[in-house]
Design brief:
310 residues, mainly alpha, 2 domains, two-stranded parallel sheet, two-stranded antiparallel sheet, elongated, membrane, CWH43-like N-terminal domain-containing protein, transmembrane helix, CWH43_N
């Protein structure tokens, strides 16, 4: 089942965005709606029919991205829940450190969802129709996406024992985050410089020719934008190995019920076995080899069951 092959999602995400932009670029160039040499990505999805495809595919991309980010959030949450269950003394320095990382993980998810929403906004509000909203969406997508990949890259260094986590993968994440940050600032500066020199209406940017003023700066801006899109797509591939040992399981239970340890049974709350919160923590930390020690999950042959609260 697809829910047990979560490593497929990073591959889909890595291919989906470039595939979308290649399609809209080809249609826009074929219809002479843009110049063929590195137009802005948004320029390739401004005029029908490519704008229709651009919007639809970016909406789907936003949903897939949000789902993939949620999976990563649950994986990190499970890891630190396991660390807490391993016997950390409440109120200790390590306990406070774990709670801070859990908070950072939640913040990372929120920022990731904002970035995903930004991609949808970019697709639905074309630059020729509502430029201000379109630019806001682009800032959410590229800016929020940059913050997200930085936070995940730094968090990954704190989870060296995560199953299938490798030092090389962590280094690649940092390199991708650095490339994205450099390109983001170059794009912002080059866009400002090029627009200051562009003598025509903004609606003519799509047909910015090499003979027009500011063309060199324009190419710097568009080229770095395309690189950022590729970087964000490639970043999801770094989740491939870690998600390969994770599977999801839907857990449905009554509000006034409790899980019994070492079973999937649900019993009334009057049972003295476990409180609901403790039972959920216990169930979330169970691995497929029935080991209760989350630290042992560093073994690559073990899978982690991520409970999706239902």
């Amino acid at each position: 089942m697809l829910c047990n092959k979560l490593h497929v999602f990073p591959v889909i995400m890595a291919l989906y965005l470039p595939f979308t932009f290649i399609i809209t670029y080809a249609i826009a160039v074929y219809n002479d709606h843009v110049e063929p040499v590195f137009p802005y990505i948004s320029d390739t999805g401004t005029i029908p029919p490519e704008s229709c495809i651009f919007g639809q595919l970016l909406n789907l991309y936003a949903a897939l991205t949000a789902w993939c980010m949620y999976l990563r959030y649950k994986q990190v949450r499970l890891y630190y829940r396991g660390v807490e269950l391993a016997g950390i003394e409440p109120g200790s320095h390590r306990s406070r450190s774990v709670r801070k990382k859990q908070l950072a993980n939640k913040a990372c998810l929120v920022i990731g969802i904002i970035a995903s929403l930004g991609a949808s906004v970019v697709g639905n509000f074309q630059e020729d129709n509502v430029l201000s909203v379109h630019l806001l969406g682009a800032a959410m997508a590229f800016g929020g996406g940059g913050v997200y990949i930085w936070m995940q890259a730094l968090l990954s260094y704190k989870m060296a024992n995560l199953p299938r986590s490798h030092r090389c993968t962590r280094h690649v994440r940092v390199v991708l985050a650095i490339i994205h940050s450099i390109c983001f600032f170059i794009m912002m500066i080059a866009t400002k410089l090029s627009l200051d020199k562009f003598p025509y209406s903004l609606k003519r940017i799509k047909l910015w020719k090499s003979s027009d003023p500011g063309y060199t700066e324009h190419l710097f801006a568009t080229f770095t934008e395309w690189i950022m899109a590729v970087v964000l797509s490639a970043y999801f591939l770094t989740y491939f190995g870690e998600l390969k040992v994770v599977r999801t399981k839907m857990l449905i239970m009554h509000k006034n019920a409790t899980l019994v340890a070492n079973s999937n049974s649900v019993v009334p709350n009057r049972s003295p076995t476990l409180s609901t919160n403790a039972a959920m923590a216990y169930a979330t930390a169970v691995y497929t080899d029935n080991s209760l020690d989350p630290v042992e999950a560093a073994d690559d042959n073990k899978q982690v069951s991520v409970a999706i609260d239902g």
